[in-house]
Design goal:
This protein is an alpha/beta fold and 182 residues long. It has one domain: 3-Layer(aba) Sandwich (Rossmann fold). It is 24% helix and 24% strand. The protein has 4 helices and 7 strands. The mean pLDDT is 87. The protein binds adenosine-5'-diphosphate and magnesium ion. The site of magnesium ion has 4 residues, from helix 2.
């Protein structure tokens, strides 16, 4: 199994959104993104950046209380129409059968599918997948009461042939460069 890996520091919520936006350029219909990270790590923030750059319709929000939210395609900034976005909260999903049973209007083949809390569940959806782990440091002098506290980082892991030729580290470096320039 082909695996490509990259890492990027995310010093601000804006950087987390920028990572999502950068991935909008490489993600295509049928792609699966699995997000892992504790509550408050930035999973929804990442998905908001991705959705905005894809130009999809509707407000990307925390999918809590909703198992899956569909965002139909909309115009990107250059006017082109990209894929839609299916945003899933696997935390509320009993198993993969349930995702099938949701009977989403748009098939997963027509959309980029982002699964929060998907590790251990969503892998069976596709052989090829992009796994993103968002890590927020705990302990030390990080005040977890403050939502922005703690410099996060992301690990990107492309699994399968789909990701073999994609330079995830170059993408991560571009995001890091943008964050430095502010
Ligand atoms: N890289 C970051 N640095 C600082 N704050 C961040 C970062 N990414 C996200 N945040 C903030 O963390 C909070 C929780 O983010 P959210 O995306 O809702 O987390 P999750 O969906 O993983 O629970 C929000 O206030 C968001 O603005
Ligand atoms: Mg969330």
């Amino acid at each position: 199994m082909v695996v490509t890996q990259a890492r990027v520091d995310l010093p601000s919520a804006e950087a987390t959104r920028a990572l999502g936006a950068a991935l909008a350029d490489v993600l295509a219909a049928g792609d699966l993104v699995i997000l892992t990270g504790d509550l408050g790590a930035g999973k929804t923030t990442f998905t908001q950046g991705l959705g905005a750059a894809l130009g999809v319709r509707g407000q990307v929000a925390s999918p809590t209380f909703i198992v899956a939210r569909e965002h139909p395609p909309g115009p990107r900034r250059d006017g082109s129409l990209g894929p839609g976005l299916v945003h899933v909260d696997a935390y509320r999903l009993g198993g993969l059968g349930e995702l099938d049973a949701l009977d989403l209007d748009a098939s997963l083949e027509e959309s980029v599918t982002v699964v929060e809390w998907g590790r251990g569940l969503a892998e069976a959806l596709a052989d090829d997948r992009l796994e993103i782990e968002l890590v927020r440091p705990r302990g030390g002098d990080v005040d977890l009461e403050h939502p922005e506290a703690g410099v996060r980082h992301a690990t990107l892991r492309g699994v399968g042939d789909r990701w073999a030729g994609v330079d995830l580290q170059a993408l991560a470096d571009a995001v890091a460069g943008g964050a430095e320039r502010g």
